[in-house]
Amino acid sequence: MALFTTLYSGSSGNCALVLCGRQYLLVDMGKSCRLTLTALKRLGLAVGDCCGILITHEHSDHVAGLETFLKSYSVPVYGRADTLDRLDELGILPPAIEAVAVDGRTEDVGGFTVTAFPTSHDVPCCGYRIRTPDGRTMALATDLGVLTPVVQQNLAGCDLVALEANYDAFSLRGGPYPYHLKVRIGSDRGHLDNRACAAEILDLIQDGCKKFALCHLSQVNNTPELALATVHNVLLAAGIQPGRDVTIQAQTRSDISPYIEF
């Protein structure tokens, strides 16, 4: 049985978990080490069963807890070469830690098989397609301003997709952010909005995927209710009933989200 959850997910910090049996992977660690360890303890998971930490990119909401964690736990770290180089420059990666560059290739991480693929963001960034030891497949893509063909190819055919629904376009335009930040978020190197996320989910459903997690929601420019309503409306217009035909879950900002089995 394969399970997916996030320990926390949003613009203030992100950490996802893929579990199969007792083995698991973490994707990012964007809040404190203490908070992350507390969440793992609540789930009954030992750090020693973590096969690796997959890093999407260098922004603090994805790596804020990593330096402290790696001072105490020798867990291998995976990411794009540019990202690992940057983390090394910042002193986040201790010399003794195994750091593996996975640019555009497939790597065995414990019993998992992991493929990294590039996403369109304002620093080098990637998503991950993960095959679990029991043969299930999921993909995670956050921090992307546009769904490129390579992203769509890596999301296709999965049993579960965790996809960014960062902002509502109307909320962003009318919100308090300065103009330059609104432009950055809405650009092809920024973040994905609810409607683009919904359109991709519809395409993935037609390709056979039935389970989805909405990730990295903005606290200022989005709400779980708004993200879910946008996705649900697109699916209902296509004759697809959320909750009956497919599972759509908005991940919790500051707490562990319910497991999704896939």
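That was protein one. Protein two is written in the same sequence-then-structure order:
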Amino acid sequence: MGALTTLEPVLRLGAFGAAFAAMAAWEALSPRRRARFAREQRWPHNLGLLAVDVAVIRLLAPGAAIAVALAAEARGWGLLNALALPSWGTVVLAVVALDLAIYFQHIMFHAVPALWRLHRAHHSDLDFDVTTGLRFHPLEILLSTGIKCAAVAALGAPAIAVLIFEALLNATALFNHANARLPERLDRWLRWFVVTPDMHRVHHSIAMSETNSNFGFNLPLWDRLFGTYRAQPAAGHDAMTIGVDAFRSAQDLRLDRLLVQPFRDTPGSYPINLRQETP
């Protein structure tokens, strides 16, 4: 299993490249919404932010979650190591439990104003497409990595389960941020099993009541179970406004603006624990 530490970046890069190419082609051939900005105005900056994230993680915490999982297996840490489950059952349960942990982490980044400052770099994109799924501030990525490592240790998640979960998370984040059209009937059926682009797009609405809904990335179960599910935006997908109200100019799409964004202005009234607008 120690070989996973070496293989992890190669496997993740391969899965990412395949998913990104597929989603980019799909949204180019069958777009769901008309884009406000040309790709060349947004993509270099969103992809540039991804490059910064990758460099920061590879420098400060390379393969951290896999390393914690291997340590947990070797030392018997965590809940799953105390249960007598078949190996396949442990893997499935770990993947589902990690997805639940990411759901609650996502809510936390919306609930705490200081964390929302980090997370709003993701929400302040003025269009919604596959590169939006890559647009996270490096400080959020570092904090998220620490939370994920704590969850892996507490669960005693096997290293193979962590690798599967991270590959799924990367692929579904690209899928559910794609500006791609699904037939309405297929979308209604599919969103019982996986978060679809139409389901997640509601979460990127400028309206606070819609931003604070549909927190899931992989499984839609958690939003339905915990009452955060919203089927459609009030204005409809074609007319809804994407982004947050504090950053509405083309200049705010630039990489340098994204990197300093957490230190600009106030969180506004988006955090869940502040007074909300009337739906």
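The chain has a mean pLDDT of 93. Keep this in mind for the problem set.
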